[in-house]
């Protein structure tokens, strides 16, 4: 079997990375939505408020636990609510994983002297670790503009202010 050209291999790796990143992000989106809801909630969860005597709670928490938050999101927004914001997240994750897969394969090819994946498994743990770390760095730098855009979009809107006076 003949080896694919470097460009073809890079396209295969990029596509595999983007697709796998997109699938994993979409599957885990409900957990991310719940996590973000807790992060932006101004009121502390009830259990935390009970532990702090000096904390003045002016309004009850909307979300107090993972299962309660899941039920509320499902009731108020339907199933689609769990995938709110998934498209901007995909625009960040897919380039990240595409770059990571491509750079990792290229680095392991250089380190092993062969582009065959079976030869990459024979790399020392040190070289494998360094390859993965460098691929992660390249992916972070390459996808940073998308992360910045997602952060700007996510932070727009009316700021939530807890007015107690």
TrEMBL record:
Highest taxon in the source lineage: Eukaryota
Location(s) in or outside the cell: Membrane
One cellular-component annotation, GO: membrane
The entry's keywords: Membrane, Repeat, Transmembrane, Transport
Solcar repeats: 8-110
Family recorded in the similarity comment: Belongs to the mitochondrial carrier (TC 2.A.29) family.
Matches recorded under InterPro entries: MCP, MCP_dom_sf, MCP_transmembrane
Topological type in the membrane: Multi-pass membrane protein
GO biological process: transmembrane transport
Protein name (record): Uncharacterized protein
Signal sequence segment: none
Classification via Gene3D superfamilies: Mitochondrial carrier domain
């Amino acid at each position: 079997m003949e080896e694919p050209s470097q460009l073809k291999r890079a396209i295969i790796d990029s596509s595999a990375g983007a697709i796998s990143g997109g699938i994993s992000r979409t599957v885990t989106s409900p957990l991310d939505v719940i996590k973000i809801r807790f992060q932006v909630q101004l009121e502390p969860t009830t259990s935390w408020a009970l532990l702090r005597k000096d904390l003045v709670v002016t309004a009850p928490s909307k979300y107090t636990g993972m299962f309660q938050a899941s039920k509320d999101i499902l009731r108020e927004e339907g199933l689609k609510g769990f995938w709110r914001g998934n498209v901007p997240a995909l625009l960040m994750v897919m380039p990240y994983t595409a770059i990571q897969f491509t750079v990792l394969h290229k680095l392991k090819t250089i380190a092993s002297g062969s582009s065959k994946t079976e030869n990459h498994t024979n790399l020392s743990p040190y070289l494998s670790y360094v390859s993965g770390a460098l691929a992660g760095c390249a992916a972070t730098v390459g996808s940073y503009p998308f992360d910045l855009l997602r952060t700007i979009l996510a932070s727009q809107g009316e700021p939530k202010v807890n007015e107690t006076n």
